[in-house]
Amino acid sequence: MRVAEPGCLAELIADCAELPTTLLADHDGSAGAATPWVPASWLVDDSCAARVAGLDDYGS
Predict the structure, then answer these.
(1) Do residues 21 and 32 lie in contact, with contact meaning Cβ atoms separated by under 8 Å?
(2) What is the pLDDT of residues 18-57, one digit of tens each?
(3) CA 49 → CA 39, 42, 43, 45, 56, distances in Å?
(4) Which pLDDT belongs to residue 30?
(5) What is the secondary structure of 26-43 as a DSSP string?
(6) Inter-residue contact 32 to 24 (CB < 8 Å)
């Protein structure tokens, strides 16, 4: 099935009104609310930091 892109704001609003209630959250954010995305933690090691050492001196 192919769904056409909305041609105007009114069509977009109408499309959004047809979303299943399971995708919509209540005002308190509980019912049907998706779990918020949490980015993976990461660390910068010494070799990575050495690559950009001194770049703060450029352009500022």
Answers:
(1) yes
(2) 877 777 665 555 555 567 778 888 888 999 889 888 887 7
(3) 21, 13, 10, 6, 12
(4) 55
(5) PTTS-TTPPPPP-PPP--
(6) yes
Q: What are phi and psi of 21, to 5 degrees?
A: -65, -20
Residue type, 36: P
CA–CA dist 6, 13 (Å, integer): 9
Q: Which amino acid is at 6?
A: P
**CB-based contacts of 43: which residues, under 8 Å, 6+ apart?**
none
* CA 27 to each of CA 12, 14, 30, 32: distance values in angstroms, whole numbers, following the listed order: 22, 20, 8, 11
pTM confidence score = 0.31
- Secondary structure class of 56 (helix, strand, coil): helix
